[in-house]
Amino acid sequence: MSVITRSVPNITVSTNDEGFTLLEMLLNLAIAIMLMSLFPLIITNISVFKATAQDNFDINLELCLRDLIADTKDMRLEVVNKELIAHEKGTNRTYSYAVDRSRIIRKADQSGYVILMERIKSARFYQQDSSIYLEMTYQDRWRVNHEIFQIQ
Questions:
Q1: Domain enclosing residue 105, as ranges
Q2: At 28, is the pLDDT very low, low, confident or very high (cuts 50, 70, 90)?
Q3: Under 8 Å between Cβ of 135 and 150
Q4: Is pTM beyond 0.70 here?
């Protein structure tokens, strides 16, 4: 008869191998909870910054007014039916600035157009004394604004 011998591994337990203590586990848990509680605050702040960055209505308003004033600087202006008509001196070119479908547009010689500004509730050009004004009601991100701008 043959004898099968198995070798049994020697397992020794060391008293120096301790692992995590309860205090270390509680500290790790507290840090993880603090980090997880910051996530909603971070997400909220990111969405506020994103909304602010996407709201460029003030910039569009300034660019529209800058273009309007710069384009009509050396032109003869008149207001007809709440539209601004600009006649270029020395040529027969005529530019018209009007409100069409909630936009301020510029037409050159009544053909084609360029959109200067969008999201306009109402706008009209008018002449008072020797000055020309643009009265505009527009919607920005938070409120409806009513302003009057002097063009010339």
A1: 57-150
A2: very high
A3: no
A4: no
